[in-house]
Structures are given as C-alpha cells and as structure tokens.
Design brief:
Elements: E1 6-9, E2 16-18, H1 20-24, E3 30-32, E4 35-37, H2 47-51, H3 55-60, E5 69-72, H4 76-86, E6 92-95, H5 104-107, H6 111-120, E7 126-131, H7 140-145, E8 150-154, H8 163-169, H9 176-188, E9 192-193, E10 195-197, H10 208-220, E11 226-228, H11 237-247, H12 251-260, H13 263-283, E12 290-294, H14 301-309, E13 314-316
Parallel strand pairs: 1-5, 3-6, 6-7, 7-8, 8-9, 10-11, 11-12, 12-13
Antiparallel strand pairs: 2-3, 4-5
Helix pairs in contact: 4-6, 10-13, 11-12, 13-14
Length: 317
C-alpha cells in the first residue's frame, strides 16, 4: 500500500548532532536526519512526540502527530559535508534516527546517497544506516567501496506472514519481504549488517515462533548486533496503530495493542518479549550480540526484578 504525501522543503539549522541518548543505546555517537517528518507514515511512530516543539510544524501549519506529509531539507547533504570537516573527534553516526533517509520523499532528492557521500568523504566516520526502505540497495555500490565503515540495517517489524498487517501500519515502507531480501543481498556483497527489531508489537511480532523466525533470518544475514525494542508508549502512536488495525479488520491485533495500553499489561508484555528474545538468541549462540533498549520507568516491580535476575543483552536506559 502506498498513500500519497505532500512534501514540504524546510531548511534545518544544522546537520550533524551529538546523540548522548543513542550513545547510551550503543547505536551511535552522532546523528544525521534529513528532515523533520518521514513519509513512511508508520502509525506507531514516536518521532512526532520527540520533535513536536520544533517551530517548523507551526510555520507549515502541520501537526507533528498527523500523517500525509513529509518535511525534508534538500540541502542537508551539503550541510553534512561542511560540518563533517569541522568535527575533529569523529565516531559512529546514524543515518537516520527520526526521519528515514530513504523514505519516498527523501528519495526524490537522493538524500540518503548524498549524505553517505558527504560523510564517507572524511576519514574517521563510521555510518550506521537504518531504514525501512529497500531503495537503500541502489547505494550498495557506494557502500561497498567503504565496506569497513558502513553498517546496514533494515528495520524488521514482523514476519512475512504479517505482511498485510504491516502494510496497514507502515503504508509507505517497503514490504517486509523486500527488506529481508536487501539484508540478504548486503550480506552476500560483504557489507556489514546489524539487526533492528523495532518495534516488536504485541499480537504482531512478539510470539516465540515469530521471534525465532526473525532471529533465524538475522543469523543468515551475518548481523554483528541485534537491537530490539518494545513499542513506544510516547505520544498517540499506540492508539493510532490500534485504530488503523481496526479500520482494516485486524481486530485480533488491535485487541492485543489495546491491552498493553494499560501499564500493568505493558510491563508483562515487555518482560515476556525480552525473555523470548533471550531464549531465541541463546538457541542461536548469539546472546552476546543482543541489545534490548529498555526504559524501565513503567515496569512493575515484579517484572523488573525478574529481568534484573537475568539481564543478558538488556541496555538499561
């Protein structure tokens, strides 16, 4: 499914940002984002809650929590090039953290490739590419030339049997089968890969057999790390996802999401999800690669104690 979007061009003041929060997550030291609103239109997206105070939304007359539009800066690659040269202590930079550089709107300006070129022109940068779009494969020729300095991950949010469900809540992202195929191609071409299972939503991607299938896929792609997260409670994302599922007739999945909107149920879901992931990763002798990004604030005491007793792979935030 692809829904049309209107595209706003908006100049960003800067391009490369230090990201202490992402450093805690062991993802990156810096971030580059190509705009303020992604065109993938994922119903569960929490970026609106993060960026809601940016003046661009007010100036453009758009709500950070609505979909149907994108905000990108066509000149961001040039800004990346200029700032890259000024930063002396370089490290891992994630492209991107809030707005996908290969989303349909970004593709119109070739922002993903141009940002990669700007970063890779200066030694010292390692780029972590994270996207939900198979279009990144068009840039594998560039990535291959710098294969020691680029890691590629395509976010996997379910198993292939849930393709119809995912097309409702990620309408402009690439189909899951395409994302898996691109991960496999990257590995076959000798490109470094990492796994990103985010979010693994209840009723969609949290069952033991689904997690086992995802870990098997990632193992076959030679991933260096496996990052995972529960669905974010911030903002209206959970409610919007539930509503989108109900409107398309996926009532079972919608009911599962409705359950975890209650704090106690969310806590059980997270604790069980982590245990299922730990089991699958141990079965594949990959537990040392596991990074579950966990904000423990809303965990119930009993669930938190259970996780503390065996916190292999948990990144406490």
């Amino acid at each position: 499914m692809n829904t049309p979007v209107r595209i706003h061009q908006y100049p960003l003041a800067s391009a490369i940002h230090r990201t202490p929060e992402f450093a805690k997550k062991k993802l990156a030291d810096f971030s580059v984002n190509v705009g303020l609103k992604c065109a993938h239109a994922c119903a569960y997206c929490s970026s609106g809650a993060v960026l809601r105070c940016h003046r661009a939304f007010r100036e453009l007359g758009e709500s950070p929590f609505k979909h149907g539009y994108a905000i990108v800066d066509p000149d961001i690659p040039e800004k990346v090039a200029a700032e890259s040269k000024r930063i002396r202590k370089r490290g891992i930079v994630q492209l991107c953290t809030t707005v996908d550089a290969w989303c349909p709107a970004a593709q119109q300006y070739d922002l993903g490739r141009r940002c990669l070129e700007s970063l890779l022109a200066d030694p010292g940068w390692t780029v972590r590419v994270l996207t939900k779009n198979a279009a990144v494969a068009r840039d594998f020729d560039l990535i291959e030339k710098h294969r020691d300095r680029v890691l590629v991950g395509l976010s996997l949010t379910g198993t292939p049997d849930k393709t119809a469900v995912l097309s409702v809540i990620e309408p402009n992202a690439s189909p899951l089968s395409d994302r898996v195929q691109v991960m496999q191609e990257a590995h076959e071409r000798g490109i470094r890969t990492f796994g990103m299972l985010c979010p693994l939503m209840p009723g969609i991607a949290d069952a033991p057999e689904q997690i086992e299938e995802l870990i098997t896929l990632l193992e076959a792609c030679g991933v260096e790390e496996v990052f995972a997260e529960a669905v974010n409670q911030r903002g209206p994302g959970l409610k919007c996802t539930e509503e989108a599922l109900r409107q398309s007739g996926f009532d079972g999945e919608a009911d599962s999401l409705a359950q975890v909107r209650r704090a106690a149920n969310w806590s059980v879901y997270v604790a069980t999800l982590i245990r299922n992931l730990q089991k699958a990763l141990r079965n594949h002798a990959m537990i040392e690669k596991f990074r579950f990004l966990l904000y423990p604030t809303n965990l119930q005491p009993a669930d938190k104690s259970r996780l503390e007793a065996d916190d292999a792979g948990i990144v406490w935030l």
